[in-house]
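=== RUN LOG ===
request id: a7f3
mode: sequence -> structure
chains: 1
length: 297
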Amino acid sequence: MKVWKFIPLLMMCVQSVLPGQLQVVSTYGYIGDIVSRIGKERVEVVTLARGDYNPHVIIPKPSYIAKLRRADLLIINGGQLEIGWLPQIIRQANNGAVQPGGRGFLDLSMHVHLIDVPTGVSRELGDVHPEGNPHFFLDPDNIPAIANAVTARLVELDSDNQAYYEANNKELYALWQQKMKGWEAKLKPFKGEKIVEYHRIFDYFLHRFGFTIVGTIEPLPGIPATTKHIADVEKLIGQEHVKFIFQDVYNPQDASEYIAKRLNVKLLILPHDVGAVKEADNVFSVFDEIVRRLTNV
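=== RESULT ===
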């Protein structure tokens, strides 16, 4: 008797969540957070990649296929960041609604300007992205463009709620502009500061706030540092009076730690996405935490 009373209640709960919602799959955490802020209760968002993983190398899981099979919309970073893991998931999901080129597929890299576009691509140059540096999310000026693209696609798929999506996007933009003023004020004293990165993931952020990138600990993208290259980086740091090494959370930190300790420069482990560190649990706090770790030295 108690079981039969419980089943209708359970069905009511399920039905209250699903009807009318757009089912959205995002490849990375920052995308999912932006979609949730614009769609709110009118969308159900699932994100595939964990924020503390290497975004280039995500191990596909059967659960990803199931999630994509139910999706109305797939939103990717693009710039070939997902090229090594996503295409096979799309194929196996066999969902005609989210195929590249269709209304249910949104490539965010098509809505921003990519930097570091190589003049040529070969294995000798390492893991180079032929379309340019795909980590454009880390320029905070790109967030409004990303949000506009998301809003436009939600409206295209759910035009009855156009005013709702556009109002939420407008609210997001206003909050973002307020935060930008604070970040700019805190980082102004660092303009012109010379930086060494482990991997060129923070280029957009560094360019946006006026830092100078003088080198990388990776000799080539995706290639571990050799003893000779480490020696060259040490010399460069001394010559250029570099004070900071920027390191992501997912690449090996041994070389960065060695150089930082040997030359007495500050090593900063910084988030690259929502969920990369526990403090960066949304798109705003990713930048809050980068700025906090940089300025609290």
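=== NOTES ===
Residues 1-17 have pLDDT under 50 and may be disordered.
The chain is about 45% helix and 10% strand.
=== END ===
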